[in-house]
Amino acid sequence: MSVDELTCKELVEVVTDYLEDRLTPEERVRFEEHVAFCSWCRTYLEQMRETVRLTGTLAEDDLSPEARDGLLQAFRDWKER
Amino acid sequence: MTTVPSVDEREQLAALRAGDERAFAALVDLHGAAMLRVARLYVRDRAAAEEAVQEAWLGVFRGIERFEGRSSLRTWLLRIVANVARTKGVREARSVPFSALGDDGPTVPEERFRGPEERWAGHWASPPDEWGRPEQELLTAETRSRLAAAIGGLPDAQRQVISLRDVEGWSADEVCNVLGLSETNQRVLLHRARTKVRAALDEYLTESET
Q1: Which of A78, B80, B85, B164 is the Cys-Cys partner for B61 at CB 3.0 to 4.6 Å?
Q2: What is the pTM of this model?
Q3: Is the minimum CB–CB distance between B94 and chain A shorter than 8 Å?
Q4: Domain residues for A53?
Q5: What CATH number is associated with residue B170?
Q6: Are residues B159 and B151 in contact, defined by beta-carbon separation less than 8 angstroms?
Q7: Residues 6 or more apart from A17 whose CB is under 8 A from it?
Q8: A8–B198 CB contact, under 8 Å
Q9: Contacts of A22 in chain B (CB under 8 A)
Q10: Which residues of B touch A40 (CB under 8 A)?
Q11: Does any domain span residue B142?
């Protein structure tokens, strides 16, 4: 194992930097080389991607019609002043 | 994200200043949902969040003549509602100072990796458990409720960032602008939040498989 090889422990700490495309080109190469040879880190990386995808399914509601009507009324009141 | 108002936004502002109700309704429809989501980061109760949105608009009406156009209209609106909701959240004593990154240290427990004295130091001590199901099967109501609970249990700053980035799908730039975070802090918070949410999912998905 060469000195500058990324360990799994280091990889899990930069996985977000990798997904956010914030690694330098050199760091990116080290990351991708590690993942190419380490199936356990491939599993971890894939689970992080899956986590982001699943989190994206938690949709929130929009403004209620009552709240929207309230805003329009507030706008009319403001206009009249 | 644009840092100054677009041509459209200049027109919308002019119409708003002139008291055009249709222009106002269009702005509410365009940004109302995003404003509500920002408000909900600070006050957990929906009614309080809707109040914050209303108060924010009243602030907008009062400040409309002073809006200098140094940020986009959307960013300005979202910052105003963030300020209003943050103040409300403090009054409700539900909020902690935002500046803290929440916690520090490694995000995955040390014991998951081989110690410094061992062969293959820093590599996995045992492999991460496979989730081993097709994505469609993962997407159950139970998974969603576990996810929501994991996010709800995060320190405030981490919860706010992951909610906007991963639940709402906002860009890093927009989240930094609205929450007043540096790009680096935003990324650190996102990393800690995602790592914990992955761990919570892992616990749930591997427990129910055995």
Answers
A1: A78
A2: 0.81
A3: no
A4: 8-80
A5: 1.10.10.10
A6: yes
A7: A23, A27, B187, B191
A8: no
A9: 187
A10: 124, 127-128
A11: yes
